[in-house]
Specification:
single chain; 280 residues; alpha/beta; five-stranded mixed β-sheet; two-stranded antiparallel ribbon; 8 helices
């Protein structure tokens, strides 16, 4: 199966949805794992990343448990000699020259554009010259392109996600020790509902960029006919909550099935009249 294969069909005039449950946090590999668990062949992710950085990333899949829940873990094995950062201008050129379907290229470019804009606002400098440290490496490129390719393969036309658990405490980054959520995640989540959700960095900048860029809204699970689901594993095992992202994929329910509340201002009044002759 190739990343360029046509998307899965769905009923005429009905949106194909994916809803991401990110109540335990989000990272790029977790989102990829959720989509693979929902039916995206690993080869789709591999073909997509090979189109951008040929031969430098190798995807691997494993079935694991997180807090007793079965989940799909996908790992990007990268060239150990690769530089850990790239400028956004360089990544944009890589995407522009890649043989990707336009929707995949467009989604990946939109995610990296947001990352670069937020990093420029946080650290200063021109957007094109911003060096994306942790999110400019091969694994992050694989995550972003992989999610975009997975959504395209499933024929998804609308992405919705719940509130993001971002974590708490502190984390060591290329800029030193930073409080969680780190500044990039704060910038990416502007206008999005967030909560701490636990200790540690639960949402990475790559995960925040993917969710808040590709999802049209932060909302509860929309009405749909459920067709597939996947559970993507995070790297850490936690006891208090399964460290996973869930993806629920389906076809949007028609308005009549989704249900609409009656207008409370509409009132019907009726009466029966006896002993009264017919008259105009």
């Amino acid at each position: 199966m190739s990343a360029a294969d046509p998307p899965t069909s769905h009923p005429q005039g009905r949106d194909r949805l994916v809803w991401f449950d990110v109540s335990a946090g989000a990272a790029g590999d977790m989102l990829c794992g959720a989509l693979v668990g929902a039916g995206v062949p690993l080869a789709v992710l591999q073909d997509a990343v090979d189109a951008v950085v040929p031969g430098l990333v190798r995807w691997e899949r494993a079935d694991v448990r997180r807090a007793g829940l079965m989940a799909t873990a996908v790992t990007a094995h990268i060239d150990p000699d690769d530089a850990a950062e790239r400028a956004w201008g360089h990544i944009r050129d890589l995407l522009a020259g890649a043989g990707l379907p336009p929707p995949v290229r467009g989604a990946a470019a939109a995610v990296f554009t947001r990352l670069a804009e937020v990093e420029a606002a946080v650290h200063g400098g021109a957007v094109d010259d911003v060096h994306l440290h942790e999110v400019g490496g091969l694994d992050a490129i694989g995550d972003v392109v992989g999610v975009a390719a997975g959504l395209h393969h499933l024929g998804v036309t609308e992405v919705v996600a719940g509130p993001l658990a971002v974590g708490s405490g502190a984390v060591r980054t290329a800029h030193g020790v930073l409080s969680v959520p780190v500044p990039a995640v704060v910038g990416l989540c502007a206008g999005w509902r967030i909560e701490a959700g636990g200790m540690g960095e639960l949402t990475t900048p790559t995960g925040a960029a993917l969710v808040t860029t590709l999802a049209r809204a932060c909302a509860p699970l929309p009405a749909m006919t459920l067709e597939a689901s996947g559970v993507g594993a995070g790297r850490r095992e936690t006891s208090e909550r399964a460290n996973v992202v869930r993806a629920l994929v389906g076809t949007a329910a028609p308005t009549s099935e989704a249900g609409t509340a009656p207008d409370p201002t509409e009132v019907v009044v009726g009466a029966t009249v006896d002993d009264l002759g017919p008259r105009r």
